[in-house]
Design a protein that fits this description.
globular; 402 residues; WD40_repeat_CS; mainly beta
């Protein structure tokens, strides 16, 4: 199974899809509750399905329809799930205001971290030693697994729920989105085993509730999903033609495209305001394996003319601001709306990038999952079978286990 693609939602089923044909190859029943989140182990052996109060672990390569392990301990909806790079442990977040770390071999609870509000999402830093979670009170917390403490507390907008968080595959960037549609991006810097978190930029991605933010494997794109029925792809690559043009343009011209940014508070775990720095967004250099989706067609680069046309329409540059200070160097901090994926008829809840960052799968309350080619912004495949809202998706098309 070179490509594993599965979706789930409110019809109490988990569906596995043949990514290229769009055929549903397998359906698992999840009678306990709706499925809120899905996650595939890096070795492609197991699928975790997070429901109301438990996480069920299914054997992907087996025909057994029953879970091989059940993780119980949360007392409310589980909102996030992620695996250690070798699958030895799993982290979950929940509306019961906790983040829990589980031993996937024994099923035992290893860590329990408490927020002051329901937790909406959690991710694992690539260093495998830190967790990042976001809650409904508007707080993003960084947890050190070694010392079992919260080392950083970020409050982008006080009392505005953080709906989703994402960390770059190389650990360089941290991103959070909130219910007002605003996105915050920080740079994560390792200094002598101490992580510094520096604010880079803030912008409004959607005018309606933002449900998911996700950085691409190549760290050149950011996907955002929303209640406005769309997903959007934001380009972080400084070599993207509109970014190059903005950098070369006089400051007065580049300011015309700036996005108004909401006020925010940034602090570390002790409450000390975080300092801003004029660091540029840079693409990551990684050796990720080529995606098996490449057989769908190659990703052709945007032409300068097409990029200029896109920039002239809905694409805008977002520049960082220092807390209580003037804007930083505008020409070195451009972030452009590259593509708006419009086609779903209701809320878009979740998304997943292909390994080569050329494709995106989205799921929606309209019951459908869709595969998009990002270079053209077109729908390549549509997956139809859920009879209620599809709210979560998991995709692993890496040619080798991560």
């Amino acid at each position: 199974m070179s490509v594993i693609l599965c979706t789930a939602g409110y019809d109490h089923t988990i569906r596995f899809w043949e990514a290229l044909s769009g055929i549903c190859s397998r359906t698992l029943q999840h009678p306990d509750s709706q499925v809120n989140r899905l996650c595939i182990t890096p070795d492609k052996r197991y699928l975790a399905a997070a429901g109301h109060t438990n996480v069920k672990l299914y054997d992907i390569k087996s025909s057994n329809p029953n879970p091989v392990m059940n993780f119980e301990g949360h007392s409310n909806n589980i909102t996030g799930v992620a695996f250690h790079c070798e699958g030895r442990w799993m982290v979950t977040s929940s509306e019961d205001c906790t983040v829990k770390v589980w031993d996937t071999r024994s099923g035992g609870l290893q860590r329990n971290y408490v927020h002051k509000a329901p937790v909406n999402d959690v991710v694992i830093h690539p260093n495998q030693g830190e967790l990042i979670s976001g809650d409904r009170a508007g707080t993003v917390r960084v947890w050190d697994l070694g010392d079992s403490v919260c080392t950083h507390q970020l409050i982008p907008e006080d009392d505005v729920a953080v709906s989703s968080v994402s960390v770059a595959s190389d650990g360089s960037l941290l991103c959070a989105g909130n219910k007002k549609g605003n996105v915050y991006i920080w740079r994560m810097i390792q200094d002598a085993n101490v992580t510094r978190i520096v604010p880079i930029t803030t912008f409004q991605a959607h005018k309606d509730y933002l449900t998911r933010v996700l950085l691409s494997p190549d760290v050149k794109h950011l996907a955002t999903c929303s209640a406005d029925h769309t997903a959007k792809i934001w380009n972080l690559d400084p070599l993207y033609p509109p970014a190059v043009a903005a950098a070369a343009a006089p400051p007065s011209a580049s300011k015309l495209n700036s996005i108004t940014k909401p006020n925010g508070t940034l602090s570390n775990g002790s409450g000390t305001p975080a300092s801003a720095s004029s660091l540029t967004l840079r693409s990551a250099s990684s050796d990720l394996a080529a995606s098996d989706f490449s057989m769908l067609g190659s990703q052709s680069p945007n032409s300068v003319a097409a990029a200029a046309a896109a920039a002239a329409s809905a694409q805008q540059a977002a520049f960082p601001t220092q807390p209580d200070g003037p804007p930083m160097d505008e020409t070195s901090h451009t972030l452009f709306l590259e593509t708006t994926l419009a086609g779903h008829q209701r809320w878009v809840w979740d998304c997943a990038f292909s390994a080569d960052s050329a494709y995106l799968v989205t799921v929606s309350s309209d019951h459908y999952a869709r595969l998009w080619e990002l270079a053209s912004g077109t729908i390549i495949r549509q997956y139809s079978g859920h009879h209620r809202g599809s709210v979560c998706v998991a995709l692993n098309d890496y040619s080798e286990p991560r």
